[in-house]
Amino acid sequence: MRTINSTPSRPFGRLREWVCAPLIVALAASCCQAITINAIYRGPGELLGTFGTAQSAPANAVGGGTLQAIMDVAVDYWESAYGDPFTLTVQYGWFPRTGSTTGTHRLLSEGGTPHRETSAAIALDSDGSTIWFADPTPTDSVEFSTYTDYTADLGAGVMNVGREFTGGFGHAARHDLFTTVLHEVGHALGLSSANNAFVAERGDNDVDVLSPLPFAGSQIPLNSGNAHLNMSHPLMRSSRGSGVRRLASEADILANAQISQFTQVNLMPLVPEPATWVLLAAGVSALPLVRRRRAHRS
């Protein structure tokens, strides 16, 4: 029987302190190479495949942030999780979604060795039925009152299976755009029903983590009908409510790594990126880690 344990009420500032030591190790191992995610914004009036014509941001979104800025932070976060050299292109924008759907990922191309998704399209709901919290500062989570770590033994030791902020107040009581963008980009990194590598992995409704990945021997449960994790608190579960923010758990990162055959993983990626003092403490020059400025081109 799988037991889920939780450690509640860790403020985000303390979370950053907690991860400094493993982060320094990860930086030393992967500062010179990493995946690259090229994010291309499709503005109002532009076409994006079967999503059709992009719309403007919904007028009832609150918080004052922009989809482009939030995507930048989400991309930086996922890039810091994997050290393998690989390039993924993601086109994204605002498009009407149906029913309670807040975001949709679609695979555009796949291939290579190892077999991976190489380009994707992401649509965020624009019809006003989702009231978005567009966080102007997605690199912190001060708008949420409680942070909880969830852990479980999935067969090879206790791993983190959820990094969850709850108790969003003010504008953050709405639906968190940052979480949805993180989730949809996560689909493009492996957990996609259209991805042949995922189809090959999902036969027994779990992701079997293999060496050389950490927690080799773990079995990460999948939903039987879609490309989501079958647990209550990971980023890549099938649903999330208002007033909640989720970051990628170790289970999320390992599931995508196994599907896409990433071998260099950082199980504790940070939002925001490491501050200069952390780099100096690690003895690592900040220059190789300066990220390119993304052009939000169409």
Structure write-up:
The chain has a four-stranded antiparallel beta sheet with strand order 1-7-8-12. Residues 9-32 and 272-298 have low confidence and may be disordered. The chain has 298 residues and is an alpha/beta fold. Helices cover 23% and strands 25% of the residues. The chain is globular and about 50 Å long.
Biggest sheet character: 4 strands, antiparallel
- Mean residue pLDDT: 85
Question: Strands across the major sheet, in which order?
Answer: 1-7-8-12
Could you give the order of the helices and strands? EHEHEEEEEEEHHEEEHH
Number of strands: 12
Rounded to the nearest angstrom, the radius of gyration is 18 Å
State the helical fraction: 10-25%
Which ranges are low-confidence, i.e. pLDDT below 50, for 5 or more consecutive residues?
Answer: 9-32, 272-298
Number of helices: 6
The percentage of residues in β strands lies in 15-25%
Query: How far apart are the termini?
Result: 49 Å
> What's the domain count?
1
Give the overall shape.
globular
Quaternary state of the chains: single chain
The helix/strand class is alpha/beta
Q: Keywords for this structure?
A:
single chain; 298 residues; alpha/beta; 4-stranded antiparallel beta sheet; 4-stranded mixed beta sheet; 6 helices; 23% helix; disordered C terminus
Write the layout of secondary structure elements.
Layout: E1 4-7, H1 12-30, E2 35-41, H2 67-79, E3 86-95, E4 103-111, E5 116-125, E6 132-133, E7 144-153, E8 158-168, E9 175-176, H3 177-188, H4 196-201, E10 206-208, E11 219-221, E12 245-247, H5 250-260, H6 276-282
Parallel strand pairs: 2-3, 3-5, 6-9
Antiparallel strand pairs: 1-7, 4-5, 7-8, 8-12, 10-11
Helix pairs in contact: 1-6, 2-3
